[in-house]
Amino acid sequence: MVGAMDSAPNVATSGPAVKVRWQWSRFPELTVAELYAALAARQQVFTVEQRCAFQDADGHDVHAWHLFAWAVAPPAVVRAPTPSEAARSCAPSSGPAARIVWAPTPPEGAQLAPWGGPAALVLAGYLRVLDAGRKFAEPSIGRVLTVAPYRGIGFGRTLMAEGIARTRLVWPQRTVRIAAQQRLERFYANLGFRTAGAPYQEDDIEHVDMLLPA
């Protein structure tokens, strides 16, 4: 499922630049907090916002790369963890996202904020790339989303460009597949994808398969 992003990529957009920290990880490398952030965003976008009842945790996550776009949050969005929250949080890790706590007034779709001292990070965008041969012959990009506060500024295109570049590094000279929501067909066409079949229904939403040539 690919959706929940800017649907008119050719239109110049204005807005604040999004400073992000990219994270590209295999499933076993994810912390509990990182996995929770991804699943929470996926549920918010694909189940709640799109009012679509489907099995998001489909068994493919363990056979995929996961791309996170962590954005610096406004200071008012986060707070320091309480002692009880700190005790329940993940063990500190390298990098700015040492612990994850609830934000008091999180942006829509961003329930979690990693607490990293003076600067905090929230999940602005996410996608996963299934291994070639797992579901399709080609590596396939899916679960593409930008959370609500980061839409309308062209960030969806930035996210996809990053995902394509990283997919190319893992599978050079390979065609890349997506199962795109049909309303975003033009968006993906402008990224180089070509329609590879007739539209079809998946989870009550019109989709179309598209391929990005090697």
Labels describing this entry:
alpha+beta, Aminopeptidase, globular
How are the SSEs ordered, and which strands pair?
Layout lengths: L19 E7 L5 H18 L14 E9 L10 H6 L10 E4 L9 E5 L2 E12 L9 E7 L8 H16 L5 E6 L3 H5 L4 E2 L4 E3 L2 E8 L2
Parallel strand pairs: 6-7
Antiparallel strand pairs: 1-2, 2-5, 3-4, 4-5, 5-6, 7-10, 8-10, 9-10
Any overview of this molecule?
- The protein is α+β, with helices and mostly antiparallel strands and about 210 residues long.
- The protein has a single domain (about 20-175, about 185-190), classed as Aminopeptidase, CATH 3.40.630.
- Helices cover about 20% and strands about 30% of the residues.
- The protein has 4 helices and 10 strands.
- Strands 1, 2, 3, 4, 5, 6, 7, 8, 9 and 10 form a 10-stranded mixed sheet that branches.
- The model is unreliable at about 5-15, about 75-80 and about 85-120 (pLDDT under 50).
